[in-house]
Amino acid sequence: MTIERAYMDHNATAPVRPEAVEAVARVLALTGNPSSVHAEGRAAHKIVEDARVAVAALVKAKPAEITFTSGGTEAANLALHAARNALGIRRIVLSSVEHDAVRVAAAHSGLEVEVLPVNENGIADLAALAGLLDAPGKGRTLVALMLANNETGVIQPVAEAAAMARAAGAFMLTDAVQAVGRMPVDFVALGADMMLLSGHKLGSPQGIGALVWRDELAFEPLIRGGGQELRRRSGTENVPGIAGFGAAARAAARDADAYTRIAELRDALEAALKAAVPDVRIFGENAPRLANTSLFSSAGLNAETLLMILDLDGFAVSAGSACSSGKVARSHVLEAMGVPPELAKGAIRVSLGLANTRAEIERFVQSWARAAVKARAHESDVKTGAPESASVRAAASSAVPA
Ligand code: PLP
Fold first, then answer.
1. Do domains 18-254 and 257-398 have the same CATH topology?
2. Would you say the CB of residue 284 lies under 6 angstroms from ligand 1?
3. Is the per-residue pLDDT at 327 higher than 80?
4. Marked catalytic residue, from 253, 323, 354, 399
5. Which pLDDT band holds residue 326 (cuts at 50, 70, 90)?
6. Nearest CA to ligand 1 atom 12
7. Which of 296, 265, 280 is closest to 360 using CA atoms?
8. Is 72 close to ligand 1, i.e. is its CB under 6 Å away?
9. Cβ pair 210, 202 in contact under 8 A
10. Which pLDDT belongs to residue 397?
11. 128-148 pLDDT, tens per residue?
12. Backbone torsions φ then ψ of 280, nearest 5 degrees
């Protein structure tokens, strides 16, 4: 019997949109280096510039403020490098829930790093930010606050933080990788100086992203060479990836309304989880969140075991924290929100997309609730060294009707 698959891991990567597939295929059939002056080169150049216009429009930035990179991680590294070397930044204040792309780049940036705490809902503490900004003698500061968190979906008060940063003479970086295409993003209204984007979360191929850099600000490249991308990032452009990113950006702008339906699906998922397992805890539930994301757990679960069971049942979801090399690492996001390790360890993230259906949600909840019973039994057996008891096996098979 073949198991029907349901992909619910869009915050890890989203399916490539048909428009992006078509744009990539069209470019692959062409030849031309965007730096060449002949007709083929000029055609490739036009593809890149059209995509720049589309990506800029999606985030309400100017096309000249967009530098294409290999993704969000490179954009983060480039931003910190340029901030330090072109803007004279000496210190970075970053929220405790930033993605590793920013956290680890900051740790290796040569900047002094200070951490901005979040509350139990995962929202940055702006009173603490005021204190951190009022720091005479610390040198120029960059505040890094992501727009939406990849694990919880919690949306941060970036505009407020940016206004505070500006008033204190500091700069503002926002990681909008998860937000773009899933909520309206306006670079100017946010008041940020720099913003990170990644194509593959909104339906482009992987390996393409962008740094948005406010056009009045000085810049310094990280990758030097032939001076492509307005001298901000050398190397022959990834023309197929850029074309795919542009097409995905246009499609995302067109499909923005779909997120109302996705929010209804997410709410249905959470209501069903609560009905099936009353002690389920949904992280960031009381904060504004992305419409597509739900991170939840219940006592005594182990996400690694759950993921395997859910995968066998046909569901592609994630553990609360990113898995690297197939291992589930402890979530610094849940730790920062004060979630006890015992509960954090069982956290599962569902991140929905355009193709998910109510029937998939219903099947998922049944599968998760059954898996939770099995995983709890496995955990208690591991603790006591006892073999799985017959009564637990019976509970696992009868907990929720399949
Ligand atoms: N920032 C956030 C919030 C992310 O979720 C990710 C990817 O998971 C990144 C940055 C890194 O983006 P990329 O995969 O394009 O390097």
1. no
2. no
3. no
4. 323
5. low
6. 72
7. 265
8. yes
9. no
10. 38
11. 999 999 988 888 999 999 999
12. -65, 140
- Is 90 exceeded by the pLDDT of residue 371? no
What pLDDT was estimated at residue 399? Answer: 32
For ligand 1, the distance from its centroid to the CA atom of residue 101, given in whole angstroms, is 6
Average pLDDT, the chain: 93
**pLDDT the model gives residue 398:** 33
Q: For residue 377, what pLDDT is reported?
A: 76
The pick from 104, 150, 195 for probing ligand 1's pocket by mutation, whose C-beta has the most ligand atoms within 8 angstroms, reads 150
Active-site residue flag, 175:
no
Strand residues in 207-250 grouped as ranges (E):
209-213
Query: Whose C-alpha lies nearest to ligand 1, atom 8?
Result: 12
Helix (H, G, I), strand (E, B) or coil at 397: helix
Q: Pick the atom of ligand 1 nearest to 71's CA.
A: 15
For 272-283, how does the pLDDT look when each residue is reduced to its tens digit (9 = 90+)?
Answer: 999 999 999 999
Domain ranges of the chain: 18-254, 257-398
The residues, ordered by sequence, that sit 6+ positions from 61 with a Cβ below 8 Å of its Cβ are 187, 188, 195, 212
The residue ranges of DSSP E strands in 66-109, in sequence order, are 66-69, 89-95
Fold of 257-398: Aspartate Aminotransferase, domain 1 (3.90.1150)
Decide whether any atom of ligand 1 lies within 6 Å of the 241 Cβ: no
Q: Cα angle vertex 154, ends 148, 156, to 5°?
A: 60
- State pLDDT tens for residues 71-106: 999 999 999 999 999 999 999 999 999 999 999 999
What is the assigned CATH class of domain 18-254? Answer: alpha beta
Ligand 1 closest atom vs CA 74: 16
> What pLDDT does 396 receive?
38
Largest CA distance in the chain: 75
Q: Please tell me the distance from the alpha carbon of residue 157 to that of residue 193, in angstroms, as a whole number.
A: 15
Evaluate: CB of 101 within 6 angstroms of ligand 1. Answer: yes
Q: How far, in Å, from the CA of 115 to the mean position of ligand 1? A: 20
- Is residue 174 within 6 Å of ligand 1 at its C-beta? no
- What is the model's pLDDT at position 388? 42
